[in-house]
Amino acid sequence: MPTKVYTRKDTSEVSCCLKYIIFSFNVLFWIFGLGILVVGIWAWLEKDTFNNLSQLTHIALDPAFILILGGTLTFVIGFTGCVGALRENTCLLATYAIFLALILLFEMTAGTLGFIFKDWIKNQATGGFQTFIVHYREDPDQQNLIDWIQEDWLQCCGIEGPKDWDKNNYFNCSSHDVGSREACGVPFSCCRRKPNELIKNKQCGYDVRKPGYKLDPAKIIYQRGCVDAAEEWVEINILYIASICFISGFFKILGICFAQNLRADIFAQKAKWH
Question: Angle 118-134/90-116 helices, nearest 10 degrees?
Answer without folding.
Answer: 100
